[in-house]
DNA sequence: ACAGTCATGGCACGTCGTGTCATCACTATG
DNA sequence: CATAGTGATGACACGACGTGCCATGACTGT
């Protein structure tokens, strides 16, 4: 019963477990209901049964509540690349590793959650900025991973950006199609299109 | 009615002309002296001889003062692509058009200004976010331009991202080398490296 | 000379994000 | 069982950001 939940939260408010998750859920719901800008932090914390100050202990700013868990992406990327066969060149590694890596990163989040989250982000330029930064951090981790594998600076940077760009476009297409071809398949399709485009001879 | 336009432009302000430019100069100087976060808007306006309220009439927020003039980039991109020979494919257009287009966009700004501006942006994550957004807007304009030339949706998106990525990396390298090989040459080098990377066969 | 236009000045206000200290539940230790 | 320690939360103050609103004064056109 909603009544019981609310009562328990309001009564035992202090130290109820899952504060972070409650904040994420309340924030996403409110952003969908009334928009990101129109939602204040006190509104989020009130729905989660917490105080404003606590919100900023869990998230650096109001936008970060939509990007929880992504801070581990760079180190996961680094581990993934360190474990890959050293013989693989940059483009080979992207071709063979991007799809499984992306599948690992996105596992555990439902398609419905991803779609609702994207709707909020796409509606707010400030949130799109933050999302671009997240991808940028991922690109930096990729670049470092390539360099650790002996790839020269420029090639590492290019390969990292190509990988992230492909992933971003593939995820967009995947969500546009409501997940119909699964993400790995969409990534490989996008990679194929990228190859075809860049291999076009210029007469 | 050309004389009317000129008159309006020459009358830039209530007391002293060039309010916008003074704000940009004061902001860049202060950001370099004491950092972006440590600089308040009242400090900028005090140095420029204006008030806080006036700052936000010229710039949407504190970060935008470093990106003045870039709001015209998307439409300039659109015009550039509309004027290009329709026979050129996406990759041909990038190969032949990116360098001159970039040269046009960056003309009139001194290398010293660009280097100091980059130092400020690189030191502040919030400013890097905004810069990523500017490139994203440029990419959207490019994508629309490709689609207007009859390119399919996915290829247009890929080509736009490749062009922007190449430009970004080339500008970074160009500034790293203090402008030694000029920007068009650096862009073409970067494009060559991109071609070489993506054309690598995967055994 | 007169009225209109427009950038600026000035003020109030809500929101964001942080510093600081107090409070309370849980835990370890004796 | 008592006590101190730990760690998350509550509560308050505060500066900075950004906006709405109206007043002011210089310039423009008639």
Describe the structure.
The structure is a homodimer of 203-residue chains. Chain A is an all-alpha fold. Chain A is built from 10 helices and no strands. At the A-B interface, helix 6, helix 8, helix 9 and helix 10 of A face helix 6, helix 8, helix 9 and helix 10 of B. Chain B binds a DNA duplex (30 and 30 nucleotides) through helix 4.
How do you describe this structure in short?
The structure is a homodimer of 203-residue chains. Chain A is 71% helix and 0% strand.
Helix proportion range of chain A? over 70%
The major pleated sheet of chain A works out as: none
Q: What proportion of the residues of chain A form beta strands (DSSP E)? A: under 5%
Helix-strand pattern of chain A, N to C? HHHHHHHHHH
In round numbers, the mean pLDDT of chain A is 91
- The radius of gyration of chain A is 20 Å
How many strand units of chain A?
0
Give the terminus-to-terminus CA distance of chain A.
Answer: 69 Å
How would the global form of chain A be characterised?
Answer: elongated
Provide the structure class of chain A. Answer: mainly alpha
Uncertain runs of chain A are 1-13
Protein chain pair with the most extensive contact, residues per chain: A-B, 34 and 34 residues
Number of helices of chain A: 10
- Quaternary status of these chains? homodimer
């Amino acid at each position: 019963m909603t009544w019981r939940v609310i009562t328990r939260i309001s009564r035992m408010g202090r130290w109820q477990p899952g504060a972070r998750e409650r904040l994420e859920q309340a924030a996403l719901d409110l952003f969908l209901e009334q928009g990101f800008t129109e939602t204040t932090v006190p509104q989020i914390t009130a729905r989660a049964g917490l105080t404003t100050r606590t919100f900023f202990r869990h998230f650096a700013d109001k936008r970060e509540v939509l990007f929880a868990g992504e801070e581990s992406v760079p180190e996961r990327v680094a581990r993934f690349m360190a474990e890959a066969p050293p013989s693989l060149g940059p483009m080979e590694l992207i071709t063979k590793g991007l799809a499984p890596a992306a599948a690992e990163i996105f596992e555990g989040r439902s398609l419905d959650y991803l779609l609702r989250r994207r709707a909020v982000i796409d509606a707010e330029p400030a949130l799109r900025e933050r999302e671009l930064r997240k991808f940028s951090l991922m690109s930096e981790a990729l670049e470092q991973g390539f360099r650790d594998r002996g790839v020269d600076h420029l090639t590492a940077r290019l390969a990292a950006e190509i990988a992230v760009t492909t992933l971003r476009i593939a995820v967009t297409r995947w969500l546009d199609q409501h997940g119909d071809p699964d993400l790995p398949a969409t990534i490989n399709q996008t990679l194929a299109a990228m190859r075809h485009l860049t291999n076009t001879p210029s007469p």
